[in-house]
# Entry
Amino acid sequence: MKRRSVTGLAAALALGPTARWAFAADPPTIKIGAVYAMSGPANYYGTVMSRGMNLALEEVNARGGVDGIKLEAVIEDHKSGKAEEGVAAINRLVSLHDTHIVLTSFSAPTLAMAPIASEKNVLLLNGGGASPKMIGASKYLFHNRTMYSELGVASVGPARELGSKLGILVFKVDTGDDVVKAVTPLWKQAGGSIVAQELVPAGSTNLDTQIAKIKAANPDVVGVWLTAPDAGLAIKRIREFGIRAPLIGLDWTGDDAKVAGAHAEGYQYVADYYQPGGEGWPGEFARKYEARYGEKPDLFAANYYEWVHVLALVIKRARAKGGDYLMGDKLAAALLESPTFDSVYGGKMTFLPSGLVRKRAALFKVDAAGKGVFQRFLEVR
# Structure
């Protein structure tokens, strides 16, 4: 950390007597690391996450950064969820870029990075991964999205209204197991039965065998517990197989809509409540994003945009206390010191000591244009 202290002081002296006073620990710029899916089959997420992050950085810097210090993004690629790539990325961010702030995404690479974050004192901020196995993986890991298992529990009520015989098409990863374990006892307590449960490896292009088994079980409702673009492909093939049962899931993106096409109409899903537009800050963000990128932001773009604005406030709090304020422990303490923040979803969000967040979740239904339409709010437990 000596290099950071010397360069920060030198930069302050170079600014002259009229410039702001800089602490010895101030760097010339504050680097914010990020590890996204910039390549591979799920690069949609990396695209929208980096867009949201960069838009927020522009806004923060236009207002003078943090006490006059500009923020800078350093983005690495975990290649659509590869744990080993996440490990390599966080090590590069710390050793080459001297940053102890990393925005992370996807559960597998985040879990792989968590022990390193604890060891090297790195603040990890997740806005994309949703496996409950991440809870407590590092004392410096925080989330601004709801875990899939929590969303699965919230989906039991709406799914049970659609029928009692449940067929499940679920991703073949730990996150999928977590959803099944959370939902199964509640579904049975509600008087339902699970008539089929088929696993889908991430990135599968042929789901016909699994869908044929779902059809043979004749479910009243099908849980499509997959992520983009697999959810869109599954919905398309389910309907092409002639399955007319209602479908309910935990995710929906623009990529899913493109793949599923007209087959997506009527699909329901449970997700964090983010609807682009409205008044105030949420509407301003949505309009800026659409003007820049030609499409409305989704919750993933919103989450990483939101994280940067939260970070700016947290860094300012930590800096006010002095010392080497850009370390994970100092930043985590500053976040929890006053854990309720404005949310770009509208209203407020509150971070818990466990690292989880409390935001509103809701049931949505896809219309003929492929857009999710709000139905009602749901309780998250």
About this structure: The chain has twelve helices and 15 strands. Residues 148-274+362-378 form a domain with the Rossmann fold fold (CATH 3.40.50.2300).
